Amino acid sequence: HKLAMKMAQYHASLHLPSSSFRTKSKVLRNIPNVFIDGTIIDKVDSCKFLGIIINSSLTWSDHIYLIKQKVCKTIGILKHVRNKLTQNVLKSIYYALVHPYYDYGNIVWATGDTVALNSLMKTQKRAIRIITSSPWNAHTRPMFIALRILQITDIHKLQTACFMFKVKRGQIPKYSCDVFSTNSEFYSFAPKHAND
Fold first, then answer.
1. Rounded to an integer, what distance in angstroms lies between the CA atom of residue 183 and that of residue 196?
2. Which distant-in-sequence residues (6+ apart) come within 8 Å of 107 by Cβ?
3. 181, 168 in Cβ contact below 8 A?
4. CB atoms < 10 A from the CB of 175, how many?
5. pLDDT tens-digit map of 130-189
6. Where are the strands (E) in 101-163, listed by range?
7. How far apart are the first and last CA of the chain?
8. Which residues, in sequence order, are CB contacts of 113 under 8 Å at separation 6+?
9. 34-36 and 39-44 as β-strands: parallel, antiparallel, unpaired?
């Protein structure tokens, strides 16, 4: 009931017939049924929401592996045409067909240093080596800089910084801003970074 009232307060809606909640599969039997306005919500291990797969443990590994599968197909195409196209054209193909997968929702799923995220970063490095016609074991940091392409971790830092800038300026909905607070709200004295 509280969830339904909160959603009404923020003019949000929930499509109950297709709604579900996530929980760890080992304990699915022990969790009681969840109801919203008298409608039972299905228990699932993972679900897709706005194009991002959310699993029961919030590790995002299911989503990262899906991105990896999609990106590997396109990287294979890049590999086959790299000798026929210029570096600029290959870079354009990268931005059109590969980069959107690394970019979309990165602020959510690129958190932490997981095995899945590291394997995805290897696919990005492989694409960069193909674009620059470099050996398979070449160091990629200089290539990213020369091509002016952000690594997955750098995309995450940029998206987080842009989001926090919008929070600080009040440019996102109030219910999202209410989640954050400044250090000055917790300290009665003025520490070094009180307004951060």
1. 6
2. 156, 159, 160, 163
3. no
4. 12
5. 999 999 999 999 999 999 999 999 999 999 999 989 988 888 888 777 787 777 776 666
6. none
7. 36
8. none
9. antiparallel
Q: How do 46-49 and 39-44 pair as beta strands?
A: unpaired
Q: At what angle do helices 115-131 and 152-169 cross, to 10 degrees?
A: 110
- The Cα 186–Cα 64 span in angstroms is 36
| 10 has pLDDT over 80 | no
Residue 22 has pLDDT above 60, yes or no: no
**What is the spatial distance between Cα 117 and Cα 121, in angstroms, rounded to a whole number?**
6
Among 67, 65, 94, CA closest to 78: 94
Separation CA 156–CA 107 (nearest Å): 5
Give the mean pLDDT of the chain: 82
